[in-house]
Amino acid sequence: MNNKTVEEQASYWFACNKENISLEEKHKFRKWLDESNTHKQAYNYLIKIESLCNSLDEKYLDNLIEEAQEGAKKTKFFEYTKKYSFAATLLVLIFFSIFQGINYYSPIYESNLETNILTNQITLLDGTKLEIDAKTKLDVKLYNKQRVVTLYYGQVMFDVAKDKSRPFNIISGQTNIRVVGTAFEVKNLDKITTISVKEGIVKISKIMENDTLQTLALLSKGEKIILDEYGKILNLSTIPIEDIATWKSNYLIFDNTSVKDAIKVFSRYTNDKIKINYKFQEKQLITGQFKNSQIEKFFDSLTTLYPIVVEKKEDTISINKKQ
């Protein structure tokens, strides 16, 4: 028996129990209830919804009843309620409406993803491909009318399958990124969100306090935007396509990057704790290309450029001033 049938039966028996039903009907109800835990769960859920309805605003409840009546008349379920009192019928119709809403707004697919020092690749049910960098956490939810990813931290390259009826939204801090079908990278590192577009059009919006969206920019191929945790634009520029998500190929590219930031990037690809006991200046920069597994080569480069010594002990890498 499918969930819809169980929900309708639960609503039917709930309406019955609001009336003075016969002893025979009560036995039938008890038999139905004891048939399975699914029946009990569905019936108990209606009890909870009744409590919710009692707390609703009267005007809102009237609107809900009107909508429920219209929706239920289009189904066989409406026939179940005809012989019961008007009050019981309305209550069941409200339950029917809420059940329909729950089914509509519940995700048809959801997944919680978190990587360690290794990258990961997945393909969603809609054909969208995600390439997930090390030390990244995100949630994926696919609904009937939209697709939503919440990126808590880390880096993800998206290749979104086209579906005009279901926009694809990524939430990063107070920034909303919306597309229909395109390829782009989203970073959420140190509460800074960076979006770089490989192909297609990407709509960038700020999530306001009332959850409405304020459009900030439309990015096209080769464009890059940086925003703070509150959705404020910090920088808007262009980026070479080949420099987007180089971590997918296990390469890290630094172009006049501060040493401290470069060390922070490398720390994503090791389980070792990196302890900096040397005060690097903001103007101390590094340029170069490294494999993310070549952390020793990276530190060797630093020791030739700056008066430091790098020591590894157990699970800690220490960067100290050379004596």
Automatic annotation (TrEMBL):
<keyword id="KW-0812">Transmembrane</keyword>
<keyword id="KW-0472">Membrane</keyword>
<dbReference type="GO" id="GO:0016989">
    <property type="term" value="F:sigma factor antagonist activity"/>
</dbReference>
<dbReference type="Pfam" id="PF04773">
    <property type="entry name" value="FecR"/>
</dbReference>
<feature type="domain" description="Protein FecR C-terminal">
    <location>
        <begin position="251"/>
        <end position="319"/>
    </location>
</feature>
<protein>
    <submittedName>
        <fullName>Uncharacterized protein</fullName>
    </submittedName>
</protein>
<feature type="domain" description="FecR protein">
    <location>
        <begin position="121"/>
        <end position="203"/>
    </location>
</feature>
<keyword id="KW-1133">Transmembrane helix</keyword>
<dbReference type="InterPro" id="IPR032508">
    <property type="entry name" value="FecR_C"/>
</dbReference>
<dbReference type="InterPro" id="IPR006860">
    <property type="entry name" value="FecR"/>
</dbReference>
<feature type="transmembrane region" description="Helical">
    <location>
        <begin position="84"/>
        <end position="105"/>
    </location>
</feature>
<dbReference type="InterPro" id="IPR012373">
    <property type="entry name" value="Ferrdict_sens_TM"/>
</dbReference>
<dbReference type="Pfam" id="PF16344">
    <property type="entry name" value="FecR_C"/>
</dbReference>
